[in-house]
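User: Hello, can you help with two protein structures?

Assistant: Certainly.
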Amino acid sequence: MKNGPLSSPTGHGAPSNNPYHKTAASYEKKINLPIVRSFRRAEERKLRQVFDAMIRPEDTVLEIGCGTGYYTRELVKRARHVIALDDSELMLRLVRERLSEADRAKMAFVHSEGTGYLPPEPLDIVVHIGVLDYVKEWEKFLSHSLAHARRAVIFTCPTSGPWGQVFHILARYEGVRIQRFHRKQLESFLRDRFPEWRMELELVGLNGRWSGGLTWVAVLQKA
């Protein structure tokens, strides 16, 4: 998650596991590196397709870990109301500054750790992009999202394939432990804990016959 200096991904006061916890500027610089941008293009295309298919004009969407608003702008184009949540006030400030007055009128900004936020009523869709990468207690985190979503949860996470392993190794040089996920792991979690939900998974980014992709794009829908 794009965490801020006040809390941790687990919500228990542990040191942050996110290299972008320190400043919003470092996060912004990293995601705009040419090599990172090239990896993200396939993810962006897929997510826009998912947003177009899933988000209705009357929807309220919760985005956990909005970061500097990279996907917030896509969500606010499609939904009636967007709640942008991040535990970095610096990130939230950047999102506010970058959105138009008309877009800000459709939004609420919440400074909170993901599982610390309890919406007063279920949200139509919960979104977290690039968040599970850094969450050690991912089952608790995903359970929280599913418990508060009325219709769908959309998220991305690193794969356990070769490219996911490369991502993991590079992250360790920054002192960060990346969570990686395989299909059966996610399917087993959903089947055992939320059998009323179904899941669609697609590999994106550097997706080859032998290497697999870098990222899972997951769409969970209530049956």
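That covers the first. Now for the second protein you mentioned:
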Amino acid sequence: MANLEGRRRVTQGTLRLTGNDVNAHSTATTATIYTGRTRLKGFTAEGGGSDGTITVYDNTSATGTAILIFGVEAGTNQSLAIPDAGVLFKTGLHAVLSNVTRMTAFTTDGG
């Protein structure tokens, strides 16, 4: 078990966030996860039948520069905990899922 800042713990593919107000947003398709200013604190992903990716944009669509590209291995559950304040998204958080069965993003309101 890794302990980051004493508040975020990643245990065997399960992401647990404690402290602060954290929201969970789950999707099985490419989607705008959040509209407006937010901070991505982490996420979990379930891989599909072949290796896939999650590409995240600071926008309400898949335009502009990708902020994060995360590889997801086929048939696995993977987590990413983002330390400190997380990643700031000023416009919105849009995720493109490719060969990913489900993604759950953990955000804080307003950033």
